[in-house]
């Protein structure tokens, strides 16, 4: 089964898509690198036996307290989004 991802994004979470662009919870298009984006299913999606994620999440760490300073260099757009206040994202 293949999934077609049209995805949006809220602070830390991509929540949908518009015309193939990532859009945050405020409806604003955001540009981030793919390196830290992962598919996400909400529990309600799992309960509905949905198999394809329609959301994405930014996962900047693989472990608690892992250094994230390299993201500034490796993925500057993602870094900028993570630093923005939630209301301005």
Describe this structure in words.
The chain is an alpha+beta fold. It has one domain. Helices cover 20% and strands 19% of the residues. It has three helices and six strands; from the N terminus they run βββββαβαα. The radius of gyration is 13 Å and the shape is globular. The N and C termini lie far apart (33 Å).
Strand order in the sheet with the most strands: 1-6-5
Number of domains: 1
Number of strands: 6
H-E order? EEEEEHEHH
Unreliable segments (pLDDT under 50, ≥5 consecutive)?
A: 6-13
What is the 3D form?
globular
Strand content: 15-25%
Short description:
The protein has helices at 43-47, 70-74, 76-83, and strands at residues 13-14, 17-18, 21-23, 29-30, 37-40, 55-58.
Comma- or semicolon-separated keywords:
single chain, 89 residues, alpha+beta, three-stranded antiparallel β-sheet, 3 helices, 20% helix, 19% strand
């Amino acid at each position: 089964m293949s999934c077609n991802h049209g995805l949006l994004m809220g602070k830390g979470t991509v929540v949908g898509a518009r015309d193939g662009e990532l859009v945050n919870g405020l409806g604003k298009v955001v540009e981030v690198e793919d390196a830290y984006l992962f598919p996400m299913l909400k529990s309600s999606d799992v309960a509905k036996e949905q198999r394809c994620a329609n959301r994405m999440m930014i996962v900047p760490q693989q472990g608690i307290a892992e250094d994230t300073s390299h993201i500034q260099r490796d993925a500057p757009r993602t870094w900028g989004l993570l630093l923005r206040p939630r209301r301005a994202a």
